[in-house]
Amino acid sequence: MNPTSLAAAVPSPLAATTAPAIELASVTRHFGAVTAVDELSLTVNPGEVVALLGPNGAGKTTTIDLLLGLGRPDSGRVAILGKPPAEAIAEGLVSAVMQTGGLLKDLSVAETVRYVAALHASTVPVAEVLDRAGLTERANRRVGKCSGGEQQRLRFALALLPDPALLVLDEPTTGMDVEGRRTFWASMREVASRGRTIVFATHYLTEADEFADRIVMLRAGRVVADGGTEHIKAMVTGRMVRATLPGAADRAVAAAIYAVPGVRDVQVHGDSVTVVTDDADGAARYLLTRTAARDLQVTSRSLDDAFVALATQEKP
Amino acid sequence: MTTSAAVPAPAPTAPRRRPPFLPLPVLALELHRLLRNRRNVIFTMIMPSLLFLLFGSDGGYKTQSAGNGNVTAYIMVSLAVYAAMVATTTTGAAVSLERAAGWSRQLRLSPLRPVSYIVLKAAVAMVAGALAVAVVLLVGYLRGAEMAPPLWLACGVLAWACSMVFAAFGLAMGYLLPGESAMQLLGPLLGLLSFLGGLFVPIDTFGSVFADIARWTPTWGAGELARWPLVGSSDLLMATANIVGWTMLFVALAAWRFRRDTDRV
Lengths: 316, 265
Known about the structure:
The structure holds 2 protein chains of 2 kinds. Chain A is α/β, with parallel strands linked by helices. Chain A has helices at 3-9, 60-67, 85-90, 109-117, 126-132, 148-160, 178-193, 205-211, 229-236, 251-258, 280-290, 303-314; strands spanning 22-31, 34-44, 49-53, 75-80, 94-97, 166-170, 197-202, 214-219, 222-228, 239-244, 263-269, 272-277, 294-300. Chain A is built from 12 helices and 13 strands. The termini of chain A are far apart. Chain B is mainly alpha-helical. Chain B is 73% helix and 2% strand. Chain B has a two-stranded antiparallel sheet. The chains are: A alpha/beta, B mainly alpha.
């Protein structure tokens, strides 16, 4: 048997298609006067693990809804593995873990999985799915009596049923404790290791950093940054040193601060100066010993700050 | 992307087939849900029989004849229609709770076709209606209702078949009204419709104005048709047109709301 026919005999979600796992082309979605997704284009290749990172209201959930065919874009094109979303869902090629709801409280965990399994043409065995989601011991518990983390694991179990080529997760660890998060991501790693494409929305940089190999940052319905995890992390981490500095408006003062090692950005608003730096101690020492700075405070740069900075840079 | 050879090949899967249109395990699970819902069992399975025992099993009714049977049988058939109505309407209207819980959204992420979901819910409602009718007929049989054996079957099947109008009504309300309010509104509404449609009191005891109004209610149509094998009907054509008309109206209403629901969850 030659290699070609061998490959053909073993269909895999990767070999079956050369189309991108996800293709969003200039997708726009309005809700009344609000533009939730604004001319967004994104291509995800099979096998990638991608984090959609952004603050609340960045358009993550709307993007996921459009991706799954739960909403229709006002303009632009959406394709999953080269097919319209509804078709990909009907064939069990894509499944999703939504943020909240979506479960019947009066069913037991195992009944819920059996219910959804019966809707598919073929699935992974129910017992195996329960095991992979760590729910075997909770199988007979009513969904209404399960903790938030257990309910989330159940949504995850439902998503595993069709053994999908693409798994989409909307803030999957909301409501989970630390231990829950750890086991959840461990099962996700297991899914990823089988070559599945995974796209997840999160507003935690650490989650994106630990799990994704590519981060797409969204703000106001647009992609503001897209790249390898290390690259994006470098862009958004760092600390901020804020101080009151009379005469900060003088360009020479700002330039001198900028020259301090580790400093990445200096913003001046009147007498107030904000320094973004990798070496907060160095910047603070410089400000306090070499300038008239007072009221100095050091803070971690929040993701929101990073988003604002990125968005400002993006604008023409 | 590196080559896919670097990634362990996923287990071979069966060719992707279309999922079943009406998955039977789901139907079984839905019925199981229905029967362990205590409130539901009380209102659809027990209440109608209690009403029958209260109003229909009076000793005098057993000896009074009504068409091809006794008055007890007449009241039993009316309450069987009532039971089927409550069962099908509440089961259909439960889609409002499932929408509120986000379950219909979850199902949209499965291969189940939206039309299958509504057909499934209608099927569950009709099975619930059949159970409700059977319980009332059984209690009636044990407590002195009398008619010829083929009439039991004919009246039972008609009471059940006519409840499709209420299954459609329940689904329409389930898509029209949000969450719990559907149930809260339907309880009193069904009681009113039953009274007005002559399920509790024959409409010829009403004044002529009320009797005229009554003939436009789906409860009158269903009652008239279900009792037809027993006592005949004054206006079979009107009763049939009534049921067909209301069913079409509610199916259209449900389909319209359903389509809007699917457009934007």
